[in-house]
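If you are new to this repository, start here. Below is one unmodified record pulled from the training split, so you can see the exact layout before writing a loader.
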Amino acid sequence: MSFIPTGIDEGGLAVPAVIANKGSRLVRAGFIPLVDAAILIAAAEFGFAAREGIQLSLIRDVSWANIRDRLAFRQFDIAHMLAPMPVAASLGLGSNPSPVVTPFVLGRGGNAITLSLGLFRRMQAMADLSGKPNALANAQALKRVIKARIEEGLGPITLGITYPFSSHNYELRYWLAAGGIDPDLEVKLVVVPPPMTSDALSAGAIDGFCVGAPWNMVAVSRGVGCIVAVKEDIWPSSPEKVIGMRPDWLEQNTETASRLIVALDRAALWCDQADNRRELALALSAPNYLDVPFEILHRVLLGQFTIDPDGAERTVPDYFNFHRDAANFPWISQAQWIYSQMVRWGQIEYCSSLAEQAGAAFRPDLYRNAIGKRVDIPTNDTRVEGRDDGDAFLDGAIFDPANIPGYLNSVGASAFEK
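And here is the target side for that same chain:
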C-alpha cells in the first residue's frame, strides 16, 4: 500500500483527498505528536477511514490537559488519550472530569524511562551495570545514588511525567518502587508535556522522565539522556493510549463510531506489518504530525534504538504492538488495574463500587459490536493480569480484578472497603 494524494483540512493538516467526497462523515480527532498516534494517522493517511465513509480530520495538540479540555468542550469528537484518562474521568478525578469512554486501545508499548547522562554515569560508578540492560538493576542503582545524595545533603532528583493520570506516572512509580525508592518521598515528580521532555532534560530542569516514543530516543540522540527501562520491562500488556469518546457523541453517532472502530482496526493491522513500518515512519515524520527525523522513527518502529550516547544498542521486538494478541481490545480488568494504581498512590480510596465504576470506562461491548465475530477477539471482558508467560510485572505481582484488596496488600498499599 502506498500514499494516496492528500488535501488540507480546515485545521491546516494533511488528510486523504478522497475523504472530501460528499456524504462522508467528518470526525475531528485530537492527538499528541507521539508514535502511538500511528493508528489514527494511518487511518487518515492511507485511506482506511475514507473507505468507511469517514472524513478523519487530525488536529495536533501539545498537552494532555488540552486534549482533555478540547474533547470536553466539543472542539474534538474523539481523541488520542492516555489509557488512565477515561478511568480518571469516570471517577471524577482531576480538573474538568468530563465523562469519556474508550471502545478501542491504540496498541501496546512505546514508553521508556530516560535519565540524564550525569545521573546515569553516577549510577554506573556506584553499581555494576555492565552486561545486558536490566531495568530492575537500574532502579536499584538509582536507589544507591539517592541514598548517597541524602547523605550529602542534596535535594531529591526531579523526574518528569506527562500527566498525573497517565501510564507514565504509574509505570515510573512502579519502576521506582521495585527498586526500593518511595516515589512520594525520595524523588520529586513534575508534569512536562511530551514534546518538551528532551528540552527540559537538556536544560537541567529535570533529571529524567517517562514518556512515549520518540522523545526518549531524541534525548539520547542529543547526547543528554540514557534509557534505563522500557514499558515491556515493567508490564508488557499495559494499555498505553486509547480512543476517547464522549458518551453523548457516541449516543448521537453510533453508526459512525462503529465504522470508525472498523477503520482503526484495519489501520492497526496494517501498522503491525513489518513491511509497512518504513512507509509509516515516513508519514509520522511529516511536520504536521511528529516532525521528527525519519531515521529515528523507523528504528523506533522496528524496536531498534540506541540507549545511551556511547552507542549501546537494544532491540525490543515488541516495542510496538499495534494489533496482535488482541492489543486493541479494551479489557475491563486493565481499567481496574489502572484504578488499583490510583489507589496505591493515594489519588483515590478503594471500594468495590468505585472499582466497578472504573472498569465501565472501557467498553469491550462496543468493540465486539463493531468488529463482529472473529477468532482473535476475547470472549471475556476481564482476566488475571501478569500471570501468563510474556506478561509478567517487573516485581512479579499478579493482578486479579476479583481481589483488588489482595493485590494492593501484596504491593504494600493499604486497601479498605468503604
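Two things worth knowing about this chain: The domain at 6-109+240-295 is CATH 3.40.190.10 (D-Maltodextrin-Binding Protein; domain 2). The chain has three domains: 6-109+240-295, 111-234, 332-410.
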